[in-house]
């Protein structure tokens, strides 16, 4: 079987493979680029596994006129840049000892060693420079079935890095079959190791949750997380009952997936600190959570927060309140977003000052919004 795609035929990428092959070393594409190519998903990163040691990779790249960057020498990784395309080349490795993220590894010349230390069978697929598939662990069967399955012993894979619990559900959301894609043995091992999530940094957990919620339809994956006890561990108090309706509304009206909107839909305790979101993400999430229950109409939401945030709030309300989403709301939001309150503080002085000035401005602004932005400056001043 052959792996195909423009990315694999690119002259720069073929030159990197030839650099290794011509020197008698193996050059095998591995991981996400193979998985995505076989699923006909976009390929963004090119990873190459080799039996050449990192120092040898650097030497060969320099001799070939390519740019080697020692991005992770102690882990066996060198990034070789060819025609502005980065190729992450990593020497075959095998685990000697595992302590979560701090595994002791040794370089190897055996592809089986390298495959067995990866997380899921669908990520242990390789291909030669000509696209010939190499499947040392039978991962192709799982990929065809869109089944996310840990390599060998699921519990051992999880203990090597507890983030793999969240990756399991993220990969299911993106690549798995909604109903059959969750391996039963994997779910059982996850339920038994949920406490290990407490050892992870909040940044890593937050990044993984955001990636999961960015999937086209993560509802089944999030439901499985709840059943396995994972939701309770990372998002206390969260409730996923409204996630599927939200995704349905997004799909019906062609609204792009937005992780923060979906995170707001889950509710529960404030997730900003547990997930260590950025300041920008935290502000946006607070806005969505606070405005779900407000009485502001579409026009006012557009005026105050812009079209995107206003639309997020409206479809969240539709999902949580089980209301029909108005497809014309986007036009109303746009009208509000393009409207500008015609009154300034100076227009009301010296008749008003201090707190009275602020209160009057607020009052007139609300009347202007209620008039559908039709009241003019002169009309407002006379009120």
TrEMBL record:
Signal peptide: none annotated. Transmembrane segments: none annotated. CDD domains: NT_ClassII-CCAase. GO terms for biological process: tRNA processing. Its EC number is 2.7.7.72. It holds the Pfam family PolyA_pol. Residues 184-239 form the tRNA nucleotidyltransferase/poly(A) polymerase RNA and SrmB- binding domain. GO terms for molecular function: CCA tRNA nucleotidyltransferase activity; metal ion binding; nucleotide binding; tRNA binding. This is CCA-adding enzyme.
